[in-house]
Write a structure and sequence with these properties.
binds iron/sulfur cluster; 51% helix; 3 domains; 4-stranded parallel beta sheet; Rossmann fold; Fumarate Reductase Iron-sulfur Protein, Chain B, domain 2; Glutathione S-transferase Yfyf (Class Pi), Chain A, domain 2
C-alpha cells in the first residue's frame, strides 16, 4: 500500500469525509455527476474515496487518477453543501499527489514552462500569429478558429482561440495619464490574464477605453506573470509556487501607489484573492504577504460599479442596443467571489438582458486536463449551456471570464447556436462610443 504523503497538507481528508452527512444535496448540481451518473464521480463519492486514501485503504492507481481528474472544480457542490465542504480544494490537493506520482504530460509541462517565461511566451505567440493561418481557419467575428486538420490533442471541428498580432502587455506604455487634473492621485493597475493578453486582446483595449473616459490614471505592470490558476488546477504546485511568489514580489513594488488592481477575468481574480492564500497555507510569511495584496485586487466590473460613476455615464449616453444579451455567471465570479449583480447592473444601462434558465450552471471548461485529454467531458458538459443560451434567442452571450469564453464559444459552435461571446467590458466600452 502506498504511503500517504498528505500529512502536512492543509486538508485532512478523514475529518472532511467524517463531516459529510451523505445527504446527497451536492449530487444534482455536480457538473461531472450530471454527465457521468456514477457515485464515484460525485462530490460525496470523491470525499469518500479521499477518506479511504488517507486511511491507506485506497491506492492512487490509474482508476483513482481518472476519477479525481474528472472533477470540473466548478464549486457547485460547495454552494449546495449544508456543511460547506470544500470538495474542489481537496481535489486540487490530491492532484498534486497525482502529478508527483504520474508526472505531467509533456504538452502541459511545455505550457507551464511558457507561463513562467513571459519573453519566450511572447515569441511563441508571435510565431503562432504568423503561422496560424496554415493550420487554422480564423473567424474574426466570433474571435475563434477551427483547425484545418486533427492533431493528437486537438481534433478538427473544435472552435479555439487564436493569437493576436501583438499582446496587450506589449501594446501600451506602462503608465497612461488619463486624469485632466494635474494633482489627481487616483490610479489603477490592470492585471490582464494570459488569454486576455495573447488571444482576446480587445478586452484590455476596452478596459483602457473605459478608464480613459473615467479619467483614471492607469498603470499596466509589465512584469506581471500568470496568476498560476492553470497549473494549480493541474497539480503542478512547483509552477504555482514560482508564479505566485514572483507576482507577490512584483505587486509589492507598486501596490501602495494604486487604488486597486483590476482584473477583467473571474478565474485570475479568484486565484489571486482566494487561492493564493490557501496555496501558501504552510508558508506563513508568504501567506501574510498574499493576504496583504488581496484586498486591493478586484474583478473589473465589481470595482467599476462600486467605485466610479461609470453606470451614470453609460445611462447618460442614451445608447441602446437592439441585440439581446444573456449573461453567464462564471463559477469563479458568482460562487467564489459573490459577483453577479455588478456586471448586470452596468450592462443593463444600454442592453436588454434576457436571463437564461440557469446562468449559474457551470459552462464545463474545467481546466487544462479537461480541455485536452478529457475534452469529451468538457464537450458533454457544454451542451446544456449552449441549449439554454439558444432558448433565450440572445445574439450575445457575455461573461467576465476568458476560460468560459473559450468553452462557451466552442459549445455554441458544436450545437450550431448563432450567438457571439463578448466580455462585459467589451460591451460596456462599445456603449460609451
Ligand atoms: S467541483 Fe463541480 S464537478 Fe467537482 S465535485 Fe464539486 S460540483 Fe462536482
Ligand atoms: S452536500 Fe455535503 S454533506 Fe451532503 S453529501 Fe454532498 S458533500 Fe456530503
Amino acid at each position: 500500500m502506498e504511503e500517504n504523503k498528505l500529512k502536512n497538507t492543509k486538508f485532512d481528508y478523514t475529518s472532511i469525509s467524517d463531516e459529510c452527512v451523505k445527504c446527497g444535496k451536492c449530487k444534482p448540481v455536480c457538473t461531472i455527476f450530471n454527465i457521468n451518473q456514477d457515485e464515484a464521480t460525485s462530490p460525496r463519492g470523491f470525499i469518500d474515496l479521499l477518506g479511504a486514501y488517507e486511511r491507506n485503504e485506497l491506492d492512487l492507481d490509474m482508476t483513482a487518477k481518472e476519477i479525481f481528474e474528472s472533477c470540473f472544480l466548478c464549486t457547485n457542490c460547495v454552494e449546495a453543501c449544508p456543511n460547506d465542504l470544500p470538495t474542489d480544494m481537496v481535489i486540487e490537493q490530491v492532484r498534486s499527489d497525482i502529478a508527483k506520482k504520474y508526472g505531467i504530460a509533456w504538452y502541459k509541462k511545455l505550457f507551464f514552462f511558457l507561463l513562467r517565461h513571459r519573453k519566450i511566451m511572447d515569441l511563441m505567440s508571435r510565431l503562432g500569429y504568423v503561422f496560424q493561418t496554415c493550420g487554422l481557419k480564423i473567424n474574426k467575428e466570433q474571435q475563434s478558429a477551427l483547425p484545418k486538420f486533427s492533431l493528437p490533442i486537438v481534433k478538427k471541428d473544435r472552435a479555439l482561440p487564436y493569437a493576436d498580432a501583438i499582446s496587450f502587455l506589449n501594446k501600451y506604455p506602462e503608465n497612461l495619464k488619463f486624469s485632466v487634473q494635474e494633482a489627481s492621485k487616483n490610479k489603477v493597475a490592470i492585471f490582464i490574464g494570459c488569454m486576455g493578453n495573447y488571444a482576446y486582446t480587445n478586452i484590455g483595449d476596452s478596459l483602457i477605453k473605459i478608464l480613459k473616459k473615467l479619467e483614471l490614471d492607469t498603470v499596466i505592470p509589465k512584469k506581471q506573470l500568470c496568476c498560476g490558476a492553470p497549473a494549480y488546477f493541474t497539480g503542478d504546485f512547483d509552477t504555482v509556487d514560482y508564479l505566485v511568489k514572483k507576482n507577490i514580489e512584483y505587486f509589492e513594488t507598486f501596490i501602495d501607489d494604486v487604488d486597486a488592481i483590476i482584473i477583467p477575468e473571474a478565474t485570475c481574480s479568484a486565484m489571486i484573492n482566494i487561492d493564493w492564500v490557501h496555496f501558501l497555507h504552510d508558508q506563513p510569511q508568504w501567506k501574510e504577504r498574499a493576504a496583504k495584496i488581496a484586498p486591493k485586487v478586484h474583478m473589473a466590473t465589481k470595482w467599476l460599479e462600486n467605485n466610479t460613476k461609470l453606470k451614470s455615464m453609460l445611462e447618460a449616453t442614451n445608447n441602446t442596443f437592439d441585440q439581446i444579451v444573456t449573461y453567464h455567471d462564471p463559477c469563479h465570479a458568482k460562487k467564489m467571489q459573490g459577483i453577479h449583480k455588478e456586471p448586470r447592473a452596468l450592462l443593463s444601462a444600454n442592453y436588454k438582458i434576457e436571463e437564461m434558465s440557469d446562468p449559474n450552471r457551470c459552462c464545463g471548461f474545467g481546466g487544462v486536463t479537461m480541455q485536452s485529454e478529457k475534452y469529451h467531458l468538457a464537450k458533454a458538459a457544454g451542451m446544456p449551456k449552449a441549449a439554454m443560451i439558444k432558448e433565450t434567442k440572445a445574439e450575445i452571450v457575455s461573461a467576465e471570464c476568458s476560460a468560459c469564453r473559450m468553452q462557451i464559444t466552442n459549445s455554441l459552435h458544436q450545437a450550431k447556436v448563432n450567438a457571439t461571446f463578448k466580455n462585459p467590458i467589451e460591451l460596456i466600452a462599445d456603449a460609451l462610443d
